[in-house]
Amino acid sequence: MSTYQTAKSDTAAVAISRNPANGELIATYGFQTPSEVEQLVDLSAAAFRLWRATPMRERVAAYRHLSAILRDRKDALAATVTAEMGKTINEARAEVEKCAATLDWLAENGPAALADERAPVEGDDEVYVSYLPIGTVLAVMPWNFPLWQVIRAAGPIMLSGNGLLLKHAPNVMGSAYALQDAYEAAGFPKGLFANLIADNETVARVIEDSRIAAVTLTGSMRAGSAVAAIAGKALKKSLLELGGADAFIVLADANIDLAVEAGIKARFQNAGQVCLAAKRFILEAPIADEFTQKFIAAAKDIKVGDPLDSASTIGPMARRDLRDELHEQVKRTIAAGAVLALGGEKLSDPGNYYAPTVLTNVGPGMAAFDEETFGPVAAITVAENVEHAILLANTSDYGLGGSLWTGDIERALRIARRLETGGVFINGYPASNARIPVGGVKNSGYGRELSHFGLREFTNAQTVWAKRVD
């Protein structure tokens, strides 16, 4: 009997992709049956055995081929992303290019990071550490960057010799299958990168399956907690990136104009639907009024519109329910004493548009301060001094990233060590990059993606100690 035979097999269960700009149905994707899931996992395991034996030079060649394919298909891929989740076409094209550039970086730098590492042991013994693949990794990915989130995970994981089974968000399955097609066109073994369309019960069974070595998830705390519990019970490694409420700290000696310009981008990129986005603007009192006035003026210039129009700054939010949840957070924050300085309203239907919103007088205990606001809403808080700013920044259950704006770099470096986050960007705003690790602490999760940390995250660091015998 199949491992999945007792899982739900309702043939009516489907993943639905709907255009957030106009509400029109794009496509539906039926959940895979228990027998189809069984075959998929078995195919993935077989592909892994083939891939782990593939020399690194051939893996690198496949990566370069995949990068070229993504660039060749940039317009089509970008159109799919924009149609499915609503980001502007310019941002979608940039996402494709970022994926290709990351694959190029991995192809160039990954082999050195994964090479055997000699251990500093005295004597004539041969002692080294090998970074070996562990198997097929289940990747549960979100919708906000339908291509980049997948490549960010799959890039390091698969170059390390592992396979990847993708459980993508239901509303971006067109993007998921476009990626699978690109991997197969690039010559990767069939099944090494494959899509799983299933309900939560089936996903749990996949995690428990002995042919699955580990799981990585980017998503909500609730989803992360559930996945970590299942993986932990099965004694399998998990990596979790669970979002954030990143602080954007502006001190009195900062360049205000540069900070405002960066703050607009950091908050409203992708309609604010970014884990690493600035969400809590913490301003030192002497410059709070100036920053706030300039920030609101800049936010008024944001053009909300058709994501296919290159003149649009932001498009609709990805789903109607997400827009409704964001609006409720705004209303709860205002009810708790915050001031609505801009926006705060749903825009024209049937699209999922939401007005760029600025809330002032926000503090701990309010929804926009305590919770992750995943949309175009900026919360402004005034700090009495530097110490108060640090305290406010750390007053969060999250710890993904953060920004610090100041003219005193030496002081900034000292402050950075006191901020409880996975990353601190001084006079800049958080962004993921192939060269640096990304990940969080506290309720933002654990583990690291990208850079040599990500390349080694899902490997067996195997110690080999060979004693020479005369």
If you had to describe this structure to a student in words, what would you say it looks like?
Strands 12-13-14-11-10-15-16 form a seven-stranded mixed beta sheet, sandwiched between helices. A six-stranded mixed beta sheet has the order 7-6-5-8-9-17, sandwiched between helices. Strands 3-4-18 form a three-stranded antiparallel beta sheet. The chain has helices at 34-52, 56-72, 74-85, 89-114, 148-159, 173-185, 200-208, 221-233, 256-268, 285-300, 320-335, 367-370, 386-394, 409-416, 451-457; strands at 14-18, 25-30, 117-118, 126-133, 136-140, 163-167, 193-195, 212-218, 237-241, 246-250, 278-284, 339-342, 357-360, 377-383, 402-405, 425-426, 445-446, 459-466. The chain is globular, with a radius of gyration of 23 Å. It has two domains: 14-243 and 445-464, Aldehyde Dehydrogenase, Chain A, domain 1, CATH 3.40.605; 246-397 and 401-433, 3-Layer(aba) Sandwich (Aldehyde Dehydrogenase, Chain A, domain 2), CATH 3.40.309. It contains 15 helices and 18 strands. 41% of the residues lie in helices and 19% in strands. Helix 2 packs antiparallel against helix 4 (89-114), helix 4 packs across helix 15 (451-457) and helix 5 (148-159) crosses helix 15. A hairpin with a 7-residue loop joins strand 3 (117-118) and strand 4. The chain has 470 residues and is α/β, with parallel strands linked by helices.
